[in-house]
Amino acid sequence: MTQALRLGIPVIGVTVARAVTFWTAALDLMATPEWESETWRTLDHADGSGRALALMRSDSPAQERPRLHLDLFTDSAQEQRTEVRRLIGLGARAVEWDLYPPDPDFVVLADPDGNLFCVVDLSHAPSGSRPEQ
After folding, report:
1. CA dihedral of residues 75, 42, 50, 63 (deg, nearest 10)
2. Read out DSSP for 39-105?
3. 3-state secondary structure of 124
4. Between β-strands 116-121 and 106-110, what pairing exists: parallel, antiparallel or unpaired?
């Protein structure tokens, strides 16, 4: 029997207009008219390869220690530093994270709505290599 269920896209609770500006610039995504409303925007990959992220209005505050978050990948420590600076320039903020391991491969940031995400240096990841694609 073939299973019909499949994973869609991650959805972030946000202030929609502000989040569209941040996430499209952060990840080179495009806001699409698909299901567009005051409470929802779908963001697609700019190369036309499909949906990437959805933004849904939320009036509740971001969680201090969310159980689910986005990991954004870079291939080197230099790329990680460059991307962290760029994202902060777009409106993200650095987060004081008391759960960093002794030699972290990730940096914790918050988007303009306070949602936490990580920028991971894959060259320094625990496995020492990129995950299987």
Report:
1. 40
2. TEEEEEETTSS-EEEEEEE--SPPPSS-SS-EEEEESSHHHHHHHHHHHHHHT-EE---TT--SS-S
3. helix
4. antiparallel
Sole residue written with tokens 């777009």: 90
pLDDT in tens, 32-88: 999 999 999 999 999 999 999 999 999 999 999 999 999 999 999 999 999 999 999
56 Cβ neighbours under 8 A, 6+ residues apart? 11, 12, 13, 14, 16, 39, 40
> Per the structure block, which two tokens stand in for 81?
């530093």
Q: How far is CA 18 from CA 41, 75, 107, 130, in A?
A: 11, 28, 22, 32
Paired tokens of 30: 């495009």
Instruction: Please say whether the beta carbons of 53 and 29 come within 8 A.
Output: yes
